[in-house]
Amino acid sequence: MRNSISVNPRQRVLVSAVGLAVASLAIPAQADTVTSGTTTVPAPGNPNTTWTVTNNSTLILQSGASSNWISLSGSPPSTGRPQLIMDGATVISTAPPAASPVGTTPPPAISVRNASATISNSTISSPNNIGIEFVTQLVSGLQPSTGTITNSTVSGFQYGVAVSAGATVTITNSTLSAGTGTNSGVNGGLINFDSNVTVNGDTVLPVKRLRRSSPDKAVVSSERRNTDAQAYALQRRV
């Protein structure tokens, strides 16, 4: 026999308030780690999942998949480079690292440290940090970072794409942009410090310049390489 429960108006109000409070809570990020083999993320993925990829392992984001930030990091002794392969996927960095203090800034959308990333037909964004960073730690046993970005859109707070310390990156038919942030006075869609960067095709780098109300767009329609220790030519110093 079904039991009936009577709820008076005040109880109904309290129950509704509790329900609204629970619904308003932010969904916590889920931290996943890949330490060996290959992990494939099919569509739709999970925009609240962060990924840490180490050792000689591979993370694949298939078309239509989404995630929060992704960190790839090689470590000595040499175990090969971690790899990221994504085609038609979306990565947006909104979650701070696990166990970090309240108010910690989320990391770059994709961090490639002594690792490799192959990105095509994808969207990468970091509203509070770098869109994609390629870094090589000069430690014995570690391999330099490498990457390709093709037909993709990358945006970051201070840099769209930052390449440093001997990494090698090729960018083709992509749009790279930066917000209003700076690091050591530098802001730009593509920043190169001591690395090899090749830009091919119709790659667009919107560049905000001082005393102008709207960003200029520099379209790179022929191959360009910059191996200087300075930041990439398309940048802003403030």
Automatic annotation (TrEMBL):
Give the SUPFAM superfamilies listed for this entry. Pectin lyase-like
Keywords from the named record: Signal
* Pfam family for this entry, one: Beta_helix
Residues of the signal peptide: 1-31
Q: Give the source's domain of life in one word.
A: Bacteria
**Where, by residue number, does the polypeptide cross the bilayer?**
none
- List each copy of the Right handed beta helix domain by range: 109-204
Q: In its UniProt entry, what is this protein called? A: Right handed beta helix domain-containing protein
